[in-house]
């Protein structure tokens, strides 16, 4: 067996310490409450509303994110156009933005500007509504999905697309026949990460859609509201549900990434 | 009407560029393009097929201006160095992919016929990542040929193959191309490809086409020292000793070579002699008009597969010779032996100094 170097030991030690702390933190979430309380909380009216709204908005947002992220990721990977660097920076910006600031920006955009009035005229009102939950989740998750998809398309040999076009297929047909099937693992990974980000988005939803009990109450909001009321059982239950969703998302993402 | 006509093509992609490329191909022509890495050969193919839009110049296919046409409308096929087989399709689906776009009837029979002609009919159910390099190359060729392109472009299709597989692939390719009468532009680094396939040859360097013409012309009348060296000729610097009458004598430092080319008396020139145009004898051959006979010392004999490369020393100048196995056996000489190199005056070419790209 190879001799362990000091540097190697230090690196492994740090990894193990942080892993232990995280496992302990996650474990405490599951160990503190009684199982019967969790079961009861899960079936409470508030939790059922919150779960249902989270799943519904999460699915709609993820679908919208993927519809927009696919062309964005493909454009950033394949095409040269004026202002490409600017577009990339702006689309990526929410990754580094605090969610609260993003929420505030969206609140101003959809509240006071012509964009807000224009959407409003179309029947889409985003401020303090369920539609606002979807908008908040969409803008929070979009940069993650477009980044993953850009990297995925970067890895696909463009010559495969060249050959397809030389055989008579248009750019769009080539995208559907060649690029999308070859990007399936990246598409799966970005879908899962987007869904996890949508379900877990708190700050943006709070500012744009508001944290109104049984109206715009998604899972992170249930956690926040119940901690405010001092109802730890409900807060822990919503935390557990969020944790399970995140864990499944990371698991599927890792599996998909292996296949990339 | 020419099959392909390229007029003054210019394209600048930053790292690679093409400048002032003009060439013409007729139906059934087989053009080999050779040149060092970074010469712009692949950009030329990708411009012809429509993946890059030229900054200047026009491309005509059968008289039709295709410069702004989409790649899918051009009916030009391409085979890449890495074959670019669609990894999510089986061999059958790869070959049928283009065909299905153009016709829906008899697809299966057409694919099977094509696969049989390229000896890959037993591989149709396999996935590309399970194939050897030679098999992948034949699948890529079948996929490109099955749609009957007006022009087939090939970017170093043999470079990833071992010598034995390359030999078999050449035979199959030649047969497939001849049967269909397909016109081809083929980038290669291997001069043997040019001898086997080419009707025309183009030499590229730093984005420019240095010479273009029938293959014999380019090999035997290199337009510059760079081309002469690139096509494997011996190159000597010399001074013209006689003018106005053939043969023209060139002093190449210690020995004189007669050439049928004309040059100004006293001019400094470069002389190119192809390795395969030199004959070697152990005994002094009889002197005759039009033949240069120089005494040399055999330095070494190296096998190059079917042929042998001989290195001779003539007045401290190295002379490379390419001889067949039988010729080497008949020569029966060992390193250190005195031998006589014979080259016809018509095969001693005077080439202009390569000032433009020096």
Q: Any idea of the CATH topology of the largest domain in chain B? A: Rossmann fold
- Identify low-pLDDT runs of chain B: 354-358
Helix count of chain A? 13
Say which CATH homologous superfamily of the largest domain in chain B is assigned: P-loop containing nucleotide triphosphate hydrolases
Fraction of residues in β-strands of chain A? under 5%
Give the low-pLDDT segments of chain A: none
CATH architecture of the largest domain in chain A: Orthogonal Bundle
Q: Considering DSSP H and I runs of 4 or more, what fraction of the residues of chain B is helical? A: 10-25%
Query: In angstroms, what separates the terminal alpha carbons of chain A?
Result: 32 Å
Q: What pattern of helices and strands is seen along the backbone of chain A?
A: HHHHHHHHHHHHH
Radius of gyration of chain A over alpha carbons? 22 Å
Question: How many H/I helical runs of chain B?
Answer: 9
Structural class of chain A: mainly alpha
Q: What average pLDDT do the residues of chain A reach? A: 91
Rg of chain B to the nearest angstrom? 24 Å
**Quaternary state of the chains:** heterodimer
Task: Write up this protein.
The complex is a heterodimer of chains A (260) and B (358). With 260 residues, chain A is an all-alpha fold. Chain A folds into 2 domains: 1-31; 35-258, MetI-like (MetI-like fold, Orthogonal Bundle), CATH 1.10.3720.10. In chain A, 81% of the residues lie in helices and 0% in strands. Chain A has 13 helices and no strands. Chain A has helices at residues 6-31, 35-42, 45-78, 84-96, 99-112, 114-121, 130-155, 158-166, 171-182, 184-200, 203-208, 219-229, 232-258. In chain A, helix 2 (35-42) crosses helix 13, helix 3 (45-78) runs parallel beside helix 7 and helix 7 runs antiparallel to helix 10. The longest helix of chain A is centred in the first third of the chain and has 34 residues, at 45-78. Chain A is globular. Chain A starts with 5 loop residues before the first helix and ends with a helix. In chain B, helix 2 packs parallel to helix 4 (133-145) and helix 4 packs parallel to helix 5. Chain B has 2 domains: 4-220, P-loop containing nucleotide triphosphate hydrolases (Rossmann fold, 3-Layer(aba) Sandwich), CATH 3.40.50; 233-351, Beta Barrel (OB fold (Dihydrolipoamide Acetyltransferase, E2P)). In chain B, the strands form 4 sheets. Chain B has a 6-stranded mixed β-sheet, sandwiched between helices. Chain B is 25% helix and 35% strand. Chain B contains 9 helices and 20 strands. The model of chain B is unreliable at 354-358 (pLDDT under 50). The longest helix of chain B has 18 residues, at 163-180. Chain B is globular, with a radius of gyration of 24 Å. Chain B has 358 residues and is an alpha+beta fold. The interface between A and B is medium-sized, with 17 and 25 residues.
